[in-house]
Amino acid sequence: MEATREIYWNVGHGVVLPMYLLAIAAFAVLAWGFWQRLPVWRQGKPLDRLGRYDERVKRLIADIFSQQRVFRVRDGGLPHALFFWSFLVLFVGTMLVMLQADFFTPLMQVNLLSGEFYKGFSLALDLAGILAILMLAGLFIRRFVIQPKGLEIVCDDYIVLQLLFAILVTGFLIEGARMAATEVRQNPALALYSPGGLLAARLFMTAGPDTLSVVHKLLWWLHFVLVLGLFCAIPYTKLRHIFTTSANGFLVPLEPKGFIPTINLEDEQAEQFGAATVKDLTWKDIFDADACTACKRCQDRCPASATDKPLSPMKVVQQIGEVAVNTPEANLCQAVSQDVLWACTTCRACQDICPANIEHVNKILEMRRNLTLMEGAFPGDEVRTAIGNLEVNANPFGLAYAGRGDWTQGLDVRVMAEDPEVDLLYFVGCYASFDKRNQEIARNFVRICNAAGIRVGILGKEEKCCGEPPRKLGNEYLYQMMATENIELIKGYGVKRVVTTCPHCFNTLAKDYRDLGLDIPVEHYATFIAGLLADNRLKLTAAPFDCTYHDSCYLGRYMDIIEQPRGIIRQAGGHITEMDNSGYDSFCCGAGGGRILAEEKIGSRINVARVNMAHDTGAPLLVSNCPFCLTMFEDGIKTGGVEGEIRVRDLAEILAERIRA
Predict the structure, then answer these.
(1) I need a labelling partner for 410 at 20 to 30 A (CA). Which of 345, 364, 455, 497 fits?
(2) How many whole angstroms separate alpha carbon 396 and alpha carbon 565?
């Protein structure tokens, strides 16, 4: 007996026309639902996300079918990815059945669903259906029984899970009723290729032919109605993420990570800077609210949320969506609250882990711009003082700018105003210029360069703060003022290469300054030294030591520099015991987003939390390569009460001790 089955068995081909008409109606409801969302999204400002079309399509396809962003977090992510792939197999199988019944058979008299192909087809669909039910059950248990902390349960969750479960179960029941009547006894060998259906068929083995016929028809129509209901529900429930999250794979920003649009402060027509209402955001910022699946990964990774501050990146995105729908003229900063907005460290952990490619950070920065530029708000008086110091002395400490190069005494380093013939310009930054502890980073970096025969120049008293802290706090005016002066100096001296020891300076000069006209190579000292070692221009005498390594957010997540610093540590003789939160999952030191200038007044201290993570590794040494991190960790060690048990050192200090002539 040939391995095949009759399509539309028992229900007859008379269902084809009403089936297609009802399907068209369901798709019309789906389309109408999304059409109603268009005016909500269009409230935002224009944003071009169609450029580099080919690259976007490739990312879209990769995101959807690989599910790599989804299962990066195994808890919840892996069962979701397996459910997606199994449901995809079922969808493809359904499309094949449709093509066979309505195209290949009537038009070409060809039966693809027969023989060995049908056996494989039947087995694949049954296994996919079984896997889908198991994964759906796992997701149900996780959400409603285990209930991970912070995972909110809403009405949508019940509707979506029950609807999907009902579709899968009725699918097997239909198959079971058909197999009980046509296959289990008549062709038992073929029935083995439908294990799910065979199991369901056991429920119907005692039923007579008439009963099976009625039950099968009822189940067939019930299943079909449930599928139609699924399509109709998509734009009105969390199921909309099937389209919106997928679309975000296409709409993902292709600029360098952490790109912030530069405001045209000379636009005399501009009446608003930053986001006061949803119309001041882009349409993509509003669209993101519909792409959010409320998986809370961003919230779980957020250092502010982890230390009991009111910020939840997930809730910020959701609140923007709620305001856009319900009260579009409302004050967005009030709806979200200033405490939430100022708590962000712009560490980008939320965006990095988000499976929906949502852009959390720039939404917060746009609202901060409104607070700072339009309302004159600050997160605290200490920040107001630091900003005043930056305006007067170009550093947050209020120290005389004339002393910016005093740390160079006794070192072979040139001031560009006196001798611009150098191999590289070392952009020192405020902390390495003025903070006594961080000055050691600068001195040791120069010593390393001298050992490699590299002539180092600095701007000295002409250097201004790179502008990153005020910019991340929303003060675009102060940032642009200092950035423009730095750029003019750098270009004026004909500099060919810039190296920084601060990841924040590095990110700002390498990315943000390009919008203002700086187009020369900028490098962080970790990769620069790695290059010197690779070229044998620098040699080290390895001396064993145990340590743990902290990935600066602005070096790791922003610049993808993860392995190079670790390679240098190993070359110096270091054995690294990794923290649980390392690499792209690194936990912030608490200094980003301009928070280096602010006191933590809500919740516990982020730097103490990170120091405790390092302390838990048992390593006696915490290695960093960021002046901000070094400052925060030394404070965290004292505040956290682990002095004498762990200490922090910069990578440059370790290397300078091991230079071999």
Answers:
(1) 497
(2) 28
Which structure tokens are listed for 509?
């000069």
Helix axes 16-41, 283-291, angle to 10 degrees: 130
Torsion over CA: 480, 483, 489, 494 (sign) = negative
Query: How far apart, in Å, are the Cα atoms of 50 and each of 38, 251, 306?
Result: 17, 7, 36
Partners of 624 in the β-ladder: 650
Count Cα atoms within 13 angstroms, Cβ side, for 373: 25
Q: Which amino acid is at 342?
A: W
Residues in contact with 425: Cβ distance below 8 Å, sequence separation at least 6, in sequence order: 416, 457, 458, 459, 490, 493, 495, 497, 498, 499
Half-sphere exposure of 390 (CA within 13 A, CB side): 27
Global pTM value: 0.94
Q: Return the pLDDT at 505.
A: 98
Q: How far apart are the first and last CA of the chain?
A: 84
Give Cα separations from 262 to 73, 121, 274, 505, 525 (angstroms). 34, 55, 11, 17, 26
pLDDT at 661: 59
Mean pLDDT estimate for the chain: 95
Assigned token pair, 251: 């709409």
Ordered strands of the 647-650 beta sheet? 574-576, 545-549, 621-624, 647-650
* Element containing residue 191 per DSSP (H, E): helix 188-191
Give the pLDDT confidence of 338-391 residue by residue, as tens digits.
Answer: 999 999 999 999 999 999 999 999 999 999 999 999 999 999 999 999 999 999
Q: Which of 123, 126, 121 is nearest to 96 (CA)?
A: 121
